[in-house]
From TrEMBL:
PROSITE patterns in alphabetical order: ABC_TRANSPORTER_1 (PS00211), ABC_TRANSPORTER_2 (PS50893)
A Pfam family of this chain: ABC_tran
InterPro entries according to UniProt: AAA+_ATPase, ABC_SmlMolc_Importer, ABC_transporter-like_ATP-bd, ABC_transporter-like_CS, Mo/tungstate-bd_C_term_dom, P-loop_NTPase, Transp-assoc_OB_typ2
Molecular function terms from GO: ABC-type transporter activity; ATP binding; ATP hydrolysis activity
GO cellular component: ATP-binding cassette (ABC) transporter complex
Record key words, sorted: ATP-binding, Hydrolase, Nucleotide-binding, Transport
Top-level taxon of origin: Bacteria
Domain ABC transporter: 4-234
Protein name stated in the entry: Sulfate/thiosulfate import ATP-binding protein CysA
Amino acid sequence: MAELRLVGLTKRFGSFTAVDDLNLCVGDGELLALLGPSGCGKTTTLRCISGFELPDEGDVFFGDKQVTLLPPEQRNIGMVFQNYALFPHMTVYENIAFGLRLRRCTKAEIHRRVCEVLERVGLSGAGERYPRQLSGGQQQRVALARALVISPSLLLLDEPLANLDAKLREEMRFYIRSLQKNVGITAVYVTHDQAEAMVLADRVAVMFAGKLAQIGPPAEVYRHPATPEVAQFIGLANFLTGSVQEILESGCKVMTSVGLVECAESRGLGVGEKVLLTVRPEAISLHRHSARVALPGQNIIRGVIKESAFLGNTVDYWVEVGDGLLVRVQGSPIDILGLGTEVDLSFSPSSSWLIPAEH
Ligand code: ATP
């Protein structure tokens, strides 16, 4: 098994920089999700790792071995794509055996390894079937088996679930995660689906415009996004612009356009510094406005419901909190509040965080 390292990886197409000085390391047996919007350079990064694209600058290391200029077939990589890329005229068995034949394995060795991997992906009885006789999920499991049968040092997956329906996609997330952990293989998983990245990955690397914006475990990136772009891309976020008014023992007070708000962190910021106080919709509680409301220790902001959307398990509200500023909040579907209702929004200092405003 190998650790993967990208050092200053840069790839240009003409004057356009698709991957811009990317530095990251994927640990032995780790699954790293490369997450970002369409066109941010995820696939190009994967192609540089696999050798189908040569970087203009920087290096790719597998363990201590520099493989930057090595052709793909000498990198011992297993790859899985969105469109499965199975050979339609070959049986499942033959599809999986293909890579082993290229490696000139003996017939007995091929049989043993194909049977073993078919069992691993739960398709033991399907060897004689053709891809067209399988469901999308089964075809993707064949593609995984074909990638794994060669005992690769690294598994690269490029949006492997994008062609599946929502329910199957959810099932397959858990399936791929447990398969990757059981095999113990180092993996890079490209997706633009944040839920997929959160479920599957040990760590998530978020990319924008060819650059790495943040890398960390899913919960950390979700709870403490480094930039407004990351906060918006992974989940939903409300921003209140303001400046630090007072540093407390445990956090700070920020003067915003809707009043003084307390935050449980201060990130080494000083008084007067401009910040974006950030809070997720699900961290905010919504109550009908009452002059007698008592919520000690909570930030309270008054507002009026301007828009709502019933989503079944929750109701999304857009609440105007002053001067056209809308805050997004999630409320209970049991007691739905009408447009124009005056409300108090409350959230605890520990459920908000600060992003320096220059980002
Ligand atoms: P998606 O999620 O849509 O696949 P991505 O994040 O994987 O997007 P890439 O496919 O890596 O993005 O592409 C990054 C940028 O580089 C895009 O703007 C794309 O148009 C450009 N690009 C990719 N390959 C080439 C190429 N061979 N020639 C010119 N431009 C390219």
